[in-house]
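Continuing from the previous page...

OK, I double-checked the sequence for Prolipoprotein diacylglyceryl transferase against my notes and this is the correct one:
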Amino acid sequence: MFEPTEGLYIGITTVPISIVSYIIAFIALSLILSRSEDGKQFVDKMVSVLLIGILTYKFWFIIEQPSILFKQPLEILMYSGGAYAWEATILLCGAWLSYQIWKEAPSNRWRLIQRILFAFIIVRVSYSLLIKDYGSPSSGWGWRLDDQTYLPTNLFLLVGYLLLLLSFYVLRKKLSFNKDQISFWLIGISIIELVVRGFKPQLDHLWMNIGTLDILYIVTLLIGVYFLLFRQPDPIHKT
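Thanks. Re-ran it with the corrected sequence; updated structure tokens here:
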């Protein structure tokens, strides 16, 4: 597994290992979904999301330091990221996905949302397989850094998401409608992320031990529970 700051050198340019994990996730998603026509259409949408994400993260530092274009242009190939690169990447990709959902026919929107959540899970699996994530200090087994052992929280995420996918495979006949699947994914994702965050030191406390991401996942969990309690069939499509 790789450190979060590592990258792959391709000629004189560097590709962050996080971007590599997203490309692998995209390839896996393409293989899984390309067997159906609407699956191929979804993969085409994800191509644009992947390109927006890669280009935004790779060249965001130019937005923060535009003078580099004139003073050290070759460094454009060597560096990527920046102080707010991930935030900008998530914002732009999220905005593009929201637009894709908005322009879909109402009867297809739930299917698209369901597949976006499935794509998120594949991305998390790929990321957790490749990149170490350091949790709280541990006296036992874990990742070593500066003579200290830390809980391997990426492995916790990996196990959690693999169990979620296995559970979906077992229950797939009962989750016949897209809204049922959306509820299942939202609840599963929220529980996994909240549990694993409990093994990590929180740096963004808003109240007691609750941080910004905790609030996001709690809201996501409540939305999933709402869909579960007030479940309705899809307008047209079954999956």
